[in-house]
Amino acid sequence: TNDHYFSHDILKSYAEPVLGLSWSNVVYYNPTDVKVVSDGYYFANGINISPDKGHIYVADLFGHNVHVLERKEDNSLVSLKSVALGSLCDSIEVDLETGDLWLGCHPNGWTFFLFDPNNPPGSEVIRVQEIHLDQPVVTQVYEDDGRVLMGSSVAAAYGGKL
After folding, report:
1. In a domain? residue 4
2. 143 burial class (0-12, 13-18, 19+ CB within 10 angstroms)?
3. pLDDT in tens, 35-76
4. Total domains, the chain
5. Within-domain flag for 152
6. DSSP 8-state assignment for residue 145
7. In the record, which residues are listed under signal peptide (predicted)?
8. Binding site residues for Ca(2+), as ranges?
9. Binding residue numbers
10. Which of 6, 58, 100, 123 could form a disulfide with 152 if both were Cys (CB 3.0 to 4.6 A apart)?
Protein backbone atom coordinates (compact mmCIF):
# COMPACT_ATOMS: atom_id res chain seq x y z
CA THR A 1 0.00 0.00 0.00
CA ASN A 2 0.99 3.60 -0.49
CA ASP A 3 -0.39 5.00 2.73
CA HIS A 4 0.46 8.59 1.78
CA TYR A 5 0.11 10.56 -1.42
CA PHE A 6 2.75 13.18 -0.66
CA SER A 7 6.40 12.40 0.06
CA HIS A 8 7.19 15.74 1.75
CA ASP A 9 7.14 15.24 5.54
CA ILE A 10 5.00 18.27 6.37
CA LEU A 11 2.43 17.56 3.66
CA LYS A 12 2.09 13.85 4.48
CA SER A 13 2.19 14.25 8.26
CA TYR A 14 -0.08 17.27 8.66
CA ALA A 15 -1.93 18.22 5.47
CA GLU A 16 -3.15 14.73 4.56
CA PRO A 17 -4.68 13.85 7.97
CA VAL A 18 -6.31 17.28 8.35
CA LEU A 19 -7.65 17.51 4.79
CA GLY A 20 -8.80 13.88 4.69
CA LEU A 21 -7.77 13.35 1.09
CA SER A 22 -8.58 9.91 -0.33
CA TRP A 23 -5.46 9.74 -2.47
CA SER A 24 -3.66 6.65 -1.19
CA ASN A 25 -3.66 3.38 -3.11
CA VAL A 26 -2.68 -0.26 -3.51
CA VAL A 27 0.04 -1.15 -5.97
CA TYR A 28 0.83 -4.48 -7.63
CA TYR A 29 4.51 -5.16 -8.14
CA ASN A 30 6.59 -7.88 -9.75
CA PRO A 31 10.05 -7.58 -11.32
CA THR A 32 8.59 -6.58 -14.70
CA ASP A 33 5.45 -4.63 -13.77
CA VAL A 34 4.26 -1.98 -11.32
CA LYS A 35 0.69 -0.72 -11.45
CA VAL A 36 -1.94 0.86 -9.23
CA VAL A 37 -4.66 -1.77 -8.75
CA SER A 38 -6.94 0.02 -6.28
CA ASP A 39 -7.23 3.63 -5.11
CA GLY A 40 -9.44 6.08 -3.28
CA TYR A 41 -8.33 5.35 0.29
CA TYR A 42 -7.87 7.92 3.04
CA PHE A 43 -4.85 6.07 4.47
CA ALA A 44 -4.43 2.60 2.95
CA ASN A 45 -2.20 0.90 5.43
CA GLY A 46 -2.60 -2.73 6.47
CA ILE A 47 -2.95 -5.30 3.72
CA ASN A 48 -3.27 -9.06 3.66
CA ILE A 49 -4.63 -11.90 1.56
CA SER A 50 -7.29 -14.53 2.20
CA PRO A 51 -6.21 -18.14 2.83
CA ASP A 52 -7.48 -19.14 -0.64
CA LYS A 53 -5.55 -16.20 -2.22
CA GLY A 54 -8.76 -14.99 -3.89
CA HIS A 55 -9.31 -11.81 -1.85
CA ILE A 56 -7.21 -8.91 -0.63
CA TYR A 57 -8.06 -7.01 2.56
CA VAL A 58 -7.00 -3.38 2.94
CA ALA A 59 -7.31 -1.43 6.19
CA ASP A 60 -8.19 2.21 5.52
CA LEU A 61 -6.94 3.79 8.73
CA PHE A 62 -8.67 7.18 8.45
CA GLY A 63 -11.69 5.61 6.77
CA HIS A 64 -12.29 3.47 9.89
CA ASN A 65 -12.94 0.40 7.76
CA VAL A 66 -11.50 -2.61 5.98
CA HIS A 67 -12.05 -3.12 2.25
CA VAL A 68 -12.63 -6.51 0.66
CA LEU A 69 -11.24 -6.80 -2.86
CA GLU A 70 -11.49 -9.71 -5.26
CA ARG A 71 -8.17 -10.70 -6.80
CA LYS A 72 -8.34 -11.50 -10.51
CA GLU A 73 -5.95 -13.79 -12.44
CA ASP A 74 -4.06 -10.78 -13.83
CA ASN A 75 -3.69 -9.48 -10.22
CA SER A 76 -6.09 -6.63 -10.80
CA LEU A 77 -8.50 -5.98 -7.93
CA VAL A 78 -12.25 -5.47 -7.87
CA SER A 79 -13.82 -3.80 -4.86
CA LEU A 80 -16.55 -5.94 -3.29
CA LYS A 81 -17.38 -4.08 -0.11
CA SER A 82 -16.20 -2.12 2.88
CA VAL A 83 -16.77 -3.17 6.49
CA ALA A 84 -17.03 -0.43 9.14
CA LEU A 85 -14.76 -0.98 12.14
CA GLY A 86 -15.34 2.15 14.21
CA SER A 87 -11.64 2.56 14.94
CA LEU A 88 -8.41 3.52 13.22
CA CYS A 89 -7.15 0.07 12.29
CA ASP A 90 -3.59 -0.54 11.20
CA SER A 91 -2.21 -3.91 10.12
CA ILE A 92 -4.25 -7.02 9.34
CA GLU A 93 -3.47 -10.60 10.27
CA VAL A 94 -5.55 -13.39 8.71
CA ASP A 95 -6.16 -16.63 10.58
CA LEU A 96 -5.25 -19.29 8.03
CA GLU A 97 -7.68 -21.82 9.49
CA THR A 98 -10.80 -19.68 10.03
CA GLY A 99 -10.21 -16.74 7.68
CA ASP A 100 -10.88 -14.34 10.57
CA LEU A 101 -9.22 -10.94 10.38
CA TRP A 102 -7.36 -9.60 13.42
CA LEU A 103 -6.58 -5.90 13.43
CA GLY A 104 -4.48 -3.76 15.74
CA CYS A 105 -6.25 -0.43 16.14
CA HIS A 106 -6.03 3.04 17.64
CA PRO A 107 -9.33 3.97 19.32
CA ASN A 108 -8.45 7.67 19.60
CA GLY A 109 -6.63 9.13 16.63
CA TRP A 110 -5.83 12.45 18.28
CA THR A 111 -4.01 10.91 21.24
CA PHE A 112 -2.09 8.73 18.79
CA PHE A 113 -1.27 11.66 16.50
CA LEU A 114 -0.28 14.06 19.32
CA PHE A 115 1.50 11.36 21.38
CA ASP A 116 1.83 12.56 24.96
CA PRO A 117 3.29 10.03 27.44
CA ASN A 118 1.11 11.61 30.15
CA ASN A 119 -2.00 10.92 28.05
CA PRO A 120 -0.92 7.86 26.05
CA PRO A 121 -2.77 6.58 23.01
CA GLY A 122 -4.92 3.58 23.74
CA SER A 123 -4.94 0.20 22.07
CA GLU A 124 -7.69 -1.87 20.59
CA VAL A 125 -7.91 -5.22 18.84
CA ILE A 126 -10.81 -5.97 16.53
CA ARG A 127 -11.71 -9.38 15.14
CA VAL A 128 -13.79 -9.71 11.97
CA GLN A 129 -15.44 -13.07 11.39
CA GLU A 130 -17.27 -14.17 8.25
CA ILE A 131 -16.16 -11.07 6.36
CA HIS A 132 -17.62 -12.34 3.09
CA LEU A 133 -21.16 -12.61 4.45
CA ASP A 134 -23.66 -9.75 4.19
CA GLN A 135 -23.37 -9.17 7.95
CA PRO A 136 -19.81 -9.94 9.11
CA VAL A 137 -19.28 -10.20 12.85
CA VAL A 138 -17.09 -7.34 14.13
CA THR A 139 -15.97 -7.80 17.74
CA GLN A 140 -13.74 -5.74 19.98
CA VAL A 141 -11.62 -8.36 21.76
CA TYR A 142 -9.20 -6.05 23.56
CA GLU A 143 -9.20 -2.45 24.71
CA ASP A 144 -6.72 -0.53 26.82
CA ASP A 145 -6.38 3.18 27.64
CA GLY A 146 -2.65 3.15 26.88
CA ARG A 147 -1.40 2.15 30.31
CA VAL A 148 -0.58 -1.38 29.12
CA LEU A 149 -0.03 -0.84 25.37
CA MET A 150 0.53 2.57 23.81
CA GLY A 151 -1.11 2.00 20.44
CA SER A 152 -1.60 -1.30 18.64
CA SER A 153 -0.22 -1.75 15.16
CA VAL A 154 -1.06 -5.43 14.76
CA ALA A 155 -2.74 -8.35 16.50
CA ALA A 156 -2.55 -12.09 15.97
CA ALA A 157 -4.13 -15.13 17.53
CA TYR A 158 -2.20 -18.34 18.09
CA GLY A 159 -3.22 -21.39 20.06
CA GLY A 160 -6.39 -19.71 21.31
CA LYS A 161 -4.47 -16.74 22.70
CA LEU A 162 -4.13 -13.16 21.50
Report:
1. no
2. middle
3. 999 988 888 989 999 999 999 999 998 889 999 999 999 999
4. 1
5. no
6. -
7. none
8. 45, 90
9. 45, 90
10. 123
